[in-house]
Amino acid sequence: MARPLGPVRLRRTSPGTIIVGLCLVLVILYLLVSPSAPDFSAARKATAALHPLSPPTSPFRKSSAVGGKSGPPPVTRYNLNNVTITNDPVANRENVLVLTPMARFYQGYWDNLLKLSYPHELITLGFILPKTKEGNAATIELQKQIAKIQKHGLEKERFKSIIILRQDFDPPIPSQDESERHKMANQKARRASMAKARNSLLFTTLGPDTSWVLWLDADIIETPPTLIQDLASHSKPLTVPNCFQRFYNDEKKAMDERPYDFNNWQDSPTAQELSSKMGKDDILLEGYAEMATYRALMAYMYEAGADIHTEVPLDGVGGTALLVKAEVHRDGAMFPAFPFYHLIETEGFAKMAKRLGWQATGLPNYKVYHYNE
What we know:
Helices cover 28% and strands 20% of the residues. By secondary structure, the chain is an alpha/beta fold. The protein has one domain (83-370): Alpha-Beta Complex (Spore Coat Polysaccharide Biosynthesis Protein SpsA, Chain A). Strands 3, 4, 5, 6, 7, 8, 9, 12, 13 and 14 form a 10-stranded mixed β-sheet that branches. Strands 1-2 form a two-stranded antiparallel sheet. It is elongated, with a radius of gyration of 28 Å.
């Protein structure tokens, strides 16, 4: 016969054990629901996007999911009156969008870009590349360099975000050799295609917190590290430095330099007269003997030893290096891919900006350098 069991005694758990157990549960829950995100600094977290639909000029950070369900997309409010555009953009923490149409990858361009002293966490990079063999090779090399800096570089070296676009149209000129690019017969089609690429890049990447847009060509390989601060210090709607090219001078038997960008100019009566006699689809081009315009070219205004901050008003600008206040683009100034007052692309952009009330300014003694093929 089984003996009846006596009363069961429950062992009392100490309060300390309960507290430790609760802490462990809370830690586990936190690890389960917390987002996996890159190691952002406080400054980066302050501008991080919370949802894929947020502006692409903000770095993306995944939102937390509770119970397997993501939260609703955020409603984001931006007050453009709070976006400052000043002559001291570093002190005012102003965001800069650096845009580069790229057909070939030049290591010198990338190395120079990394040397820019403007805080990288305030810089968004945007690239657009064509669907060509050279474009594919440039995209692969660009992605390699981006991975080095964004994944493995020091945090101060990393850029706020980087956007890469591929063109949805074919370039009219298959070769990007300098001799082919600059043939007069190729200019209208080539520059119309460039205008489309610039507009696609601009309209895709311009965010509501962008203060400045720096257009920097992919073959600009040498600039002062303070390029952005220097150009912004003039606080002009459009500011363009003088673009030169280093080369070996066979006559001097030494390295030398020569003017490169002839699209920075002041208009002339001759050019205006030529324009008045043109058909509606014709364009004026600069730097060609077959079409002498007698405009005053900033390329020839350089004075050795003169003040690098000397300013001159311009009627046309090039895009090798061009700093634009974001409000100029927001006002509607873009790059016409069609004859606009017989001008196209960057020169047409300067004309359109001027029609909107924005004056272009050139710095003839401030030099940047173009790659020499």
